[in-house]
Amino acid sequence: MRLRQIEVFHAVYSTGSMTGAAAMLHVSQPSVSKVLAHAEQQLGYILFERSKGKLIPTPEAHRLFKHVTVVYRNVDRLRQVAENLRAGTSGRIRIASTPAFGLELLPQAIVAFRSRHPDAVFEIETLHLEEINDALLETRIDIGLAFEPLPSPGIEQERLATGRFVVVAPRDLDFGGKRSLSIEDLKGLPFIGMNSRGPLGRSLSAELEASGVDLDVVIWTETYHVAISLVACGAGITITDNVTAGSTIADEVRVYPLEPAQEFQIRALHPSDAPMSLLAKEFVADLRQHVRSFLHEADASERTP
Predict the structure, then answer these.
(1) CB neighbourhood size of 137 (10 A)
(2) 122 neighbors 91 (Cβ within 8 angstroms)
(3) Angle CA(284)–CA(92)–CA(83) in degrees, nearest 5?
(4) Tens digit of pLDDT per residue, the chain (305 long)?
(5) Which residues fall within 8 angstroms of residue 196, CB to CB, at 6 or more apart?
(6) Maximum separation of any 2 CA atoms in the chain, in Å
């Protein structure tokens, strides 16, 4: 089947009529009828039975539609990619990050970059890792920013820095003067747990399970920022990444390094078949330095009583 025949068959099957298909494709009804007839002639079998003005899909049409749907979605993605490529300009940087980076780190990096490049225009999205990968493959964005991303076909990674997990506890909670904490130190205390949706959450869950410590989980949440807010309200303690902890330090909480150290990689992502503009490359280089400076300051704040 030719692409036009696939489009017409998909439209007729989806709408149930020639009129509906014509409206969907913005063409005339005779044009739809002609293309469908040619498709049936080439295939050698009927796709729709005509009964009292209605089109009834044949068994062959039902089976064919399952495969046509896959092709149709890929064609839609191709159109989107073509449109995004047309819309992209060298002075525009489209970036998506997981939520933790959007709290403070990424906004600060963008403001610093634009102080030197006032003509640069940014488009920012906050997405989960799977959504960032899709946006990169569709060339909807130029750069992705994520924790510990898994390798993905068609996407290149650049290491920006190494982060680590930290313990966030109410400031008035006494740990006997300890400056770092182990998972064992958290035993018996109300714990705010993270649902292991992404690579970082899965890594933390594996570490907690390997420790053999049975933590008293009183609340589960989806985001580290919410977990820290709960700590500040006195709901318990939590373990989070040091980027989120450094972005949401409040007077009511204190941050402790987790020992032994559990580290993860912070990486910038971009499509392997769509080279970044010179402006975007410069931003990634700046971002690398900004992330490392941010983490250094966060580490320093942990050492402050």
Answers:
(1) 18
(2) no
(3) 115
(4) 888 888 899 999 999 889 998 999 899 999 999 999 999 999 999 999 988 778 899 999 999 998 888 888 888 777 776 665 554 444 789 999 988 898 889 999 999 999 998 888 899 999 988 899 999 998 889 999 999 888 889 999 999 999 999 999 999 898 988 999 999 999 999 999 987 777 888 888 888 888 899 999 999 988 888 999 999 999 999 999 999 998 876 778 999 999 999 999 999 999 998 888 888 999 999 999 999 999 988 776 655 44
(5) 202, 204, 205
(6) 85
- pTM metric for this prediction: 0.66
Same domain, residue pair 148 and 281: yes
- Do residues 187 and 251 share a domain? yes
Domain extent for 8? 3-87
Residues 172 and 212 occupy one common structural domain: yes
In angstroms, the CA 208 to CA 291 distance is 26
Residues 151 and 277 in one domain: yes
Count Cβ atoms within 10 A of the Cβ of residue 7 and give its class: 0-12 exposed, 13-18 middle, 19 or more buried. buried
Residue type for position 88: G
Q: Tell me the two tokens of residue 255.
A: 């941050």
CATH number at residue 216: 3.40.190.290
Count of domains in the chain? 3
